[in-house]
Design goal:
With about 1050 residues, the chain is α+β, with helices and mostly antiparallel strands. Among the domains are: about 80 residues, Alpha-Beta Plaits, CATH 3.30.70; about 60 residues; about 80 residues, Signal recognition particle alu RNA binding heterodimer, srp9/1, CATH 3.30.720.50; about 90 residues, Phosphoenolpyruvate Carboxykinase, domain 3 (Alpha-Beta Complex), CATH 3.90.228.10. It has 40 helices and 45 strands. Strands 33-40-41-42-43-38-39 form a seven-stranded mixed sheet. α28 runs antiparallel to α29. The radius of gyration is 51 Å and the shape is elongated. The N and C termini lie far apart (about 135 Å). Its EC number is 2.4.2.-. It is an enzyme of class 2 (transferase). Keywords: Glycosyltransferase, NAD, Nucleus, Transferase. One of its GO terms (molecular function) is NAD+ poly-ADP-ribosyltransferase activity.
């Protein structure tokens, strides 16, 4: 049995996942090659998984080895908690016992005074935590025996020594406090600077904080804590002190698992102690699972097992060596080679943590096995104590390899292991072990070098660590007495090591380092920490704002540089940052104004912050004329050249032309001419299913060639990727041609026709999808960039960041205004006028929203004034312009393609664009038709395609304005006819409201003096037809927009009838006609 304590041999596995099986966990940590461990026993203690190894060295190897991964699950290991000398647990109390009686009992039994302890009863008052101000002075076993003999209020109580906890209970939290805030606080220097493992919120004002190290609990409890201007209450956390409802589901689950584990262990122990009857009559105890795993604890002689191969007569004996030290000595010795040389017919190998002996002679193998067992049993272990510094020196990898190599070179195979402040030497015999101990003691030399305060500071430099790495087999540490450096090295290297260290301590070391940081942090230091930088006069500090490196360059003596770097690093780490996004119309333009710069400078000085704006710089339009710029943008927009119907007609004509050109040399007469009577009515481009409705089989009279066309091995070899509709439609056309034709030419013609037919079908299907939504053009991106800005703020406190956020947004909102412009023509704006509105947004940096007949302009006051001016100018032009609808009613632009006998009309979008360009008296205009560049020459009335180089004649066609040739009753044509019938318009109709509104708009100053009683509509058809003829004549001759206005004529009631019958007579001008 090992003499080490259980604490030294134990390792705790943290947060063990349910995916890791207990058996798999044991096998992994028993494997020395993978985990560094060895034979162990697994225990469950208070929800913790503890591995108890046979040797403390195995536990040390597990803790020092890298990350442990089992079944793709990363495991964390640490030392299990030690016993807490200041916290005791009293169990078995009577819940009705008063606290005064308990205090007297504790003071008498433990010999305490008032104020030397604190009691924490559990919610059930049957368990009590005793927190001592000083560690217990009595021997615990004697105290436990004494308390178990003395009852308290008739109840038998017992005392336990608690293990150290890694958690604290935090109370008095402010509402809204979360896990992240608590983690940041306790890991900061204000909270103790301890690493936090987990945070659980037990309630809105209570939380459980767990740390990585057990020592962190006392360090945190010894401090005063204040968070968000509130004093926090902290105490050690134990589950038994918490009410059941405060336990998290995870805690409850852990307690249930602990109970289940305890019951299972008790059940296994009962089974292991029960005798089982064997067939031979012997009685043997059934080993438990843990016992089965630890059969390797037996001696080497008990671990031998015989294995006989079934394939040959070769026998094998395996001698297990459970002790890694003995196994290492065996490998280093010459015993294996000597044994192999003396017995050529025997194979000796080191395998499976032991020695495998194979041969044909059983007697010989038995003798060799016994010889090997005697050799292993003759090995001896010797222990000698050393100073802690020397133990750490011996445990270094390079030192161990050097010393063991020297031992092997001297013919003394041995190994040593470091266990605490002692070395355990394993050798072939006791004398050899003593010799090795003497050799190891003689190899370590200590050199003491006096150092002053300045030189002691040099020992904290990274240059010192680099020197120690270059000095092999050397470790150094300041003496506890101070003023002296103790250096450990190997024999023969003392002078060389001492010379190098003295030279380092007496040399002047210069250092140049760069502290990298964000540009905003650098500006913050320069602005608000300039005095701190100026006080560091022992070093030179130069700011660097290069693109590759941004920070502070520190140059000077190494000690001063390191101190300055540590101080500045602490300042930089305390700087708080926040990105503030401000969304407001024209905010980027405002940011470049002198007023805004003044606001930012004021906030930087007031709140001790640095503000770094990030935005797309504002730039004015290259051309301030919004109408010209909008027209340029319209010309860069792709327009459909022809309408969908025109495209389909053109493609259909080309398809028919190509199909009809096939097989013109020889045609076979149609046998059933009467079946073709309805051929012209067949829709060749519709759904193929409609052909069945028209009895296509009997109509065509050629089902076999038609079937071959769709087959993969048809004569025509139709492409499978063509649409089924296009193939079927062309097959109908083709089946009506002659059967005798040239196959090579016809296939090419038919393939081309099929592709055209498919293109026609696809275009017809996608005609509705051609009206795509507008993509984000550069002008729209510029508008969006002008309305958003990001401010990166750097400050010493988070509260200052919040203040800057509120203050700046308030300043921006106070300068925002809104103006509304109303006009009845707003609802009829064309794409060109909408583009003009976008240009106004871009020009002035404002937001414009169209609401019915109103335009709302919002943004900064100075910018809104200019935007409203341009908006009114736009509305003035809009009121004098012709709408797109009127243009399409009056004018049509067509092109005369040589391949088409009829003029091909342009699309509505193209017609509107060309008409506006023509009315602007432009000689040439560049435009995109179907994403292809074109140029239109109005002097030559010609369209030129820059892609193909082709030119096409175009013309402008005036459409008729209504039907002027319809029959008019003779009585209506008579100038002497009576007054046309008047139709009264109801007051609730939209027409009535529009007439009244427009009339009042012309007499605004007399609005309150006039009341409209009635509105009537009259129609004189003869005069109306004359008006339409005149309007057509004006449109044909004019190149400017036709200005039509609604005028109001005041006259007497007698003249009203004459005007309605005969119209206005200019000869009565001035006579109130």
């Amino acid at each position: 049995m090992s003499t080490e304590s259980e604490e030294e041999r134990s390792v705790e596995v943290l947060a063990l996942s349910e995916e890791v099986d207990e058996e798999l966990l044991c096998l992994y940590f028993e494997n020395k090659r993978r985990s560094g461990g060895g034979p162990l026993e697994l225990q469950r203690k208070d929800g913790r998984t503890v591995l108890v190894f046979e040797e403390a060295q195995a536990a040390d190897r597990v803790l020092s080895k890298g990350p442990h991964v089992v079944h793709n699950v990363k495991l964390q290991v640490r030392r299990p908690p030690a016993k807490d000398p200041c916290r005791l647990l009293l169990r078995g109390l009577n819940p009705n016992t008063s606290i005064e009686m308990v205090e007297l009992y504790v003071e008498n039994m433990i010999d305490l005074n008032v104020g030397e302890y604190t009691l924490f009863p559990s919610p059930g008052r049957d368990v009590l935590l005793i927190h001592l101000s000083q560690p217990i002075s009595k021997e615990f076993q004697a105290l436990s025996s004494q308390i178990s003999k003395r009852k308290l209020d008739g109840a038998v109580v017992c005392i336990e020594q608690l293990s150290r906890t890694d958690s604290v209970l935090v109370e008095n939290l402010q509402p809204g406090t979360n896990q992240d805030l608590l983690t940041l606080y306790f890991e900061s220097e204000r909270g103790g600077g301890q690493r936090v493992k987990d945070v659980r919120m037990l309630s809105a004002a209570t939380a459980k904080v767990s740390f990585v190290n057990f020592e962190s609990v006392d360090l945190v409890l010894d401090r005063q804590h204040k968070l968000e201007n509130t004093e926090l209450a902290l105490r050690a956390y134990f589950d038994f002190l918490q009410p059941p409802e405060s336990l998290t589901p995870r805690d409850s689950e852990t307690e249930q698992q602990d109970d289940t584990t305890r019951r299972s262990q008790n059940h296994i122990q009962m089974q292991a102690s029960s005798p089982l009857a064997n067939g031979d009559g012997s009685s043997r105890a059934k080993p438990s699972a843990a016992g089965a795993r630890h059969t390797s604890k037996a001696g080497a002689s008990e671990e031998s097992m015989d294995v006989q191969s079934e394939e040959a007569e070769t026998l094998q004996f395996h001698v297990a060596i459970p002790d890694p030290a003995k196994q290492a000595v065996f490998v280093c010795s010459t015993f294996q080679k000597d044994l192999q040389k003396a017995n050529p017919g025997v194979d000796v190998q080191v395998k499976d943590d032991g020695v495998l002996i194979a041969g044909a002679d059983r007697l010989q193998l038995e003798q060799l096995r016994q010889t090997l067992l005697d050799f292993l049993n003759a090995m001896q272990e010797t222990r000698f104590s050393v100073a802690p510094e020397e133990a750490e020196f011996f445990s270094r990898k390079d030192v161990e390899e050097y010393l063991l190599t020297a031992l092997r070179g001297s013919g003394t195979p041995a190994v040593y292991t470091v266990l605490g402040p002692a070395l355990i030497v394993t050798a072939l015999s006791a004398d050899a072990a003593a010799t090795v101990c003497s050799f190891l003691k003689s190899q370590v030399k200590c050199v003491s070098i006096p150092v002053n305060a300045e030189q002691e500071c040099m020992l904290h430099l990274r240059e010192w660590l680099e020197l120690l790495q270059t000095l092999s087999f050397t470790s150094a540490k300041m003496s506890d007495r101070g003023g002296q450096l103790d250096v450990l090295t190997l024999k023969g290297k003392e002078k060389q090591t001492e010379r190098a260290i003295r030279q380092f301590l007496t040399s002047s070391i210069e250092r140049e380092t760069v502290m990298a940081m964000k540009p905003g942090m650098l500006k913050y230091l320069q602005t608000h920490c300039h005095q701190l930088l100026a006080d560091m006069n022992q070093v030179s500090i130069i700011p660097s704002e290069a693109e590759d490196v941004c920070g502070l360059k520190i140059h000077g003596p190494a000690v001063a540089c390191q101190m300055a770097e540590e101080v500045l690093q602490g300042v930089v780490s305390s700087i708080c940052t926040r990105s503030i996004t401000v969304n407001a119309p024209g905010v980027t333009r405002f940011l470049e104004e002198k007023e805004c710069r003044s606001i930012l400078n004021e906030m930087e000085s007031k709140f001790v912050v640095y503000i770094c704006p990030k935005y797309v710089p504002w730039s004015h339009l290259p051309h301030q004329d919004i109408f010209e710029t909008a027209w340029t943008m319209m010309s860069q927009k792709s327009l459909p050249k022809m309408s969908v119907d025109a495209k389909q007609t053109g493609l259909r004509d080309e398809v028919k032309e190509r199909v009809s050109s096939m097989g013109t040399k020889r045609r076979k007469p149609v046998e059933h001419a009467d079946q073709l009577y309805d051929l012209e009515n067949v829709d060749l481009y519709s759904d193929p299913t409609s052909l069945s409705d028209q009895n296509s089989a009997s109509l065509l009279g050629a089902p076999k060639p038609f079937a071959d066309l769709n087959g993969a091995g048809g004569v025509l070899g139709l492409s499978k990727n063509l649409g089924e509709e296009a193939q079927l439609s062309l097959a109908i056309q083709y089946s009506m041609e002659a059967e005798q034709r040239s196959t090579k030419d016809d296939e090419a013609q038919l393939q081309k026709a099929l592709e055209l037919s498919k293109t026609m079908t696809e275009r017809g299907d996608s005609s509705g999808s051609n009206k795509q939504t507008k993509a984000n053009t550069p002008i729209q991106e510029a508008i969006q960039a002008a309305n958003s800005v990001q401010l990166d703020v750097f400050a010493g406190y988070n509260c200052d960041l919040i203040r800057v956020d509120i203050a700046f947004k308030k300043k921006v909102s106070q300068r925002q205004v809104e103006e509304k412009v109303e006009h009845r023509a707003v609802a009829n704006m064309s794409d060109y006028h909408k583009t003009c509105l976008e240009m106004i947004k871009r020009k002035h940096g404002v937001a414009i929203d169209v609401q019915g007949t109103s335009i709302v302009v919002s943004g900064f006051k100075d910018y809104v004034v200019g935007a409203v001016w341009d908006t009114k100018l736009l509305l003035e032009k809009l009121s004098n312009s012709v709408s797109d609808r009127e243009i399409l009613k009056a004018v049509q632009w067509v092109q005369h393609h040589p391949a088409s006998p009829d003029p091909i009309p342009y699309s509505d979008e193209a017609t509107v664009f060309l008409e506006k360009a023509w009315r602007m008296k432009l000689k040439t205009v560049d435009v995109l038709f179907d994403h292809q560049p074109h140029s239109v020459n109005f002097d030559k009335m010609q369209e030129y395609s820059r892609a193909s180089g082709e030119s096409v004649k175009i013309s402008r066609k005036l459409l008729e304005l209504g039907d002027l040739t319809q029959d008019v009753p003779e009585e209506e044509l008579s100038l002497l006819s009576n007054l046309p019938d008047a139709t009264k318009i109801t007051e609730d109709s939209e027409e009535f409201q529009n007439v009244v509104k427009n009339f009042y708009a012309t007499i605004y100053e007399h609005h309150s003096k006039i009341r409209i009683i009635q509105v009537e509509r009259l129609m004189n058809r003869l005069l109306y037809n004359q008006y339409k003829l005149k309007k057509a004549s004006v449109l044909q001759l004019s190149t400017h927009p036709v200005v039509e206005r609604t005028l109001y004529h005041g006259t007497s009631e007698t003249s009203v009838k004459e005007i309605c019958v005969h119209g206005f007579n200019r000869s009565f001008c001035g006579k109130n006609a």
